Amino acid sequence: MIRAWLAGRDFSALALTAPVAMGYIPLGAVFGFLFVQAGGDWWLAICASLLVYAGAAQYMMIPLLAAGMSTASIALATLIINSRHVFYGLSLLNRLPASRWQRWYVIFGLTDETYSLITTLPPGTNERNMLLVTQLNHGWCVLGTALGALIGAQAKIALVGLDFALVALFCVLTVEQWRTRKSATPLWIALLAFAIAWPLSARHAMVISIALSVLAVVFLELLRKRSSGAPA
Amino acid sequence: MSDNLYVLGVIVAMALVTFALRALPFVAGQWLQQHPLVHRLGQFLPLAIMTLLLVSSTLGAMTDDPDSPWPELMAVLLVAVVQWFSKNALLSILLGTGAYVLLRNFF
Description:
The structure holds 2 protein chains of 2 kinds. By secondary structure, chain A is mainly alpha-helical. Chain A has 2 domains: 2-180, no CATH class; 183-232, no CATH class. Chain A has 11 helices and no strands. Chain B has 4 helices and no strands. Chain B starts with a helix and ends with a helix. Classes of the chains: A mainly alpha, B mainly alpha. At the A-B interface, helix 2, helix 3, helix 4, helix 5 and helix 6 of A face helix 1, helix 2, helix 3 and helix 4 of B.
């Protein structure tokens, strides 16, 4: 039966998402675990992976929820952290499934990893495979979250520092962004913005410094336009 | 975190915002493609935001640690070096977190 299943055409999508599963299951598990350890209910952790389905923003929500930050501030922080997703669709405008609900589901599931897989699928790949890749990735994330949340709900962990996994994750993502950087300016502007925001309000330093960084980009863009003499 | 209605509200708000961002190009693709500022932000924000998340989460860990800043700095450095050379996210996270837990609990 397994042999028949492997021989089926679903195998390519399954093989394609295998590396994503290696990442999503443990990362989902860490999210579920930390969510429950921070005092959340296990089923809410699963809801978050089912409905939000956005790695870094989900990790960010744990300390913000624990701090009791307002829904509007958390929504704003999500908007800023996930703003990169706006650009993913641009390269997929003419490639998504035609059927309406399949199309919206693939759009819903456009995480960094699903986007990379879908854009590497050869042109003319059938729509079923595109949908299947999206579904499998979503499934790995929810599965990992469920595992982590259930373990977290059982465990009475006495070790301090396990939540350092989040710092480590952000460090990994920073290194990867640095590797593919076009310029080092974003890093320096971000550090400068944080140095300004931190003394103003340690609690809201993140949101303030993101706003400052966005302002800096607008300002640099205006300067560039003025110096090049191009019409606005 | 104990108020489930609040948590559920946040989850729904985050889900709507995330979906809206992912759907925007399919609704306003032309406009986005033409606007240079949007492109500039798209190139700029990922590295800036990751840097900010790293700095603020590291500072967050330091505030809970009476022996800060050395355990945090050493563990972050370890993760960065392992990730730079191995490109294996899981390995980097496990090694860094393991080292940090050891430093915090047994030294």
